[in-house]
Task: inverse folding
């Protein structure tokens, strides 16, 4: 159980909100078939990871520590997996790595669309999601060795390479993902800005056999000629192509802005606590009971619950899908399909 009452209350509220919000994201994407694309599959995976994080945080903050710990292997596992923050931070790192994959998926879709169509598929998504778990578990579960049990009490063991380990964790878990995602979003923003200033290409309508005759008649009689059926159809196709192109750019911009806000939330929520953790590993004395430290902890754990708010206010596909789920409106379902297919 969380010993600090204020942190326990905050974690309980954040945990409950995160469980409800992330569950809704998973259910909407799963139940609304029009939302089942590669990007939303990764977003759903992100919500599932955050759901597990919030569930573990809620239970860990409110289940009291037993007065007498079990002995033997059971006691060691209790101290290493439950009492220590190993599982929670493993889920946090998994969430960070998955967010980086979502970012790079959008990066390749916008910057290298032809290579994206060639290499990205449902199978690629499954491999990436499994890879995130395998890499994170292989990396983070080594932290179990820092915790154990002695004389019936859970303890934290000091390690000789504390400074080096702290720097490596700071780089892998925070700084490198931060820089990679920042580069991707800046490059995407530049490319989207360039595409906006370009003039849409004009589709030329090839002459038809009937056109010269109509022009001759206009020259002979002076009467205005009527467009042929073929010309009218080609003009309609041109209008539809231009409208589809605008919808495609609009949908891509909306997805980009949504994920960019998710990245910004990650940056704001995790930066203070990440630097405090780095400084602590470098030997700085950190007062865990200070108000500033507790605020950084609340900011960090709130990142698992805040994405639902971002999707609800910003992500048009999700909003429309949620309305479909709540209202069972076929007209809305068709609108969601039109957005999802062009993204």
Result:
């Amino acid at each position: 159980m969380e010993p600090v009452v204020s942190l326990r209350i905050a974690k309980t509220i954040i945990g409950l909100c995160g469980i409800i919000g992330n569950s809704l994201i998973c259910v909407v994407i799963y139940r609304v078939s029009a939302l089942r694309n590669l990007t939303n599959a990764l977003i759903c995976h992100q919500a599932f990871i955050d759901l597990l994080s919030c569930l573990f945080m809620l239970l860990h903050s409110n289940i009291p520590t037993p007065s007498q710990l079990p002995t033997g292997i059971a006691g060691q596992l209790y101290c290493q997996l439950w009492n220590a923050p190993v599982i929670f931070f493993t889920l946090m790192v998994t969430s960070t790595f998955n967010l980086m994959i979502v970012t790079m998926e959008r990066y390749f879709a916008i910057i290298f669309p032809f290579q994206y169509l060639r290499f990205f598929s449902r199978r690629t998504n499954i491999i990436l999601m499994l890879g995130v778990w395998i890499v994170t578990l292989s990396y983070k579960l080594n932290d179990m060795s820092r915790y154990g049990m002695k004389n019936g009490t859970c303890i934290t063991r000091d390690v000789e390479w504390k400074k080096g380990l702290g720097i490596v964790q700071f780089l892998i878990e925070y700084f490198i993902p931060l820089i990679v995602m920042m580069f991707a979003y800046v490059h995407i923003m530049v490319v989207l800005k360039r595409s906006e200033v370009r003039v849409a290409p004009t589709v030329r309508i090839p002459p038809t056999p009937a056109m010269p005759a109509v022009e001759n008649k206009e020259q002979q009689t002076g009467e205005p000629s009527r467009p042929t059926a073929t010309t009218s159809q080609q003009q309609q196709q041109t209008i539809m192509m231009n409208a589809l192109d605008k919808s495609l750019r609009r949908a891509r911009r909306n997805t980009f802005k949504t994920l960019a806000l998710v990245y910004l939330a990650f940056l704001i929520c995790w930066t203070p606590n990440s630097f405090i953790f780095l400084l602590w590993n470098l030997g700085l004395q950190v007062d865990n009971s200070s108000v500033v430290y507790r605020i950084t902890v609340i900011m960090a754990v709130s990142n698992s619950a805040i994405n639902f708010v971002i999707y609800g206010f910003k992500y048009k596909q999700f909003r429309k899908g949620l309305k479909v789920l709540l209202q069972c409106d076929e007209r809305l379902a068709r609108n969601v399909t039109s957005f999802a297919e062009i993204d």
Notes: The longest strand covers residues 147-150. The two ends are 44 Å apart (CA to CA). The beta strands are 147-150, 153-156.
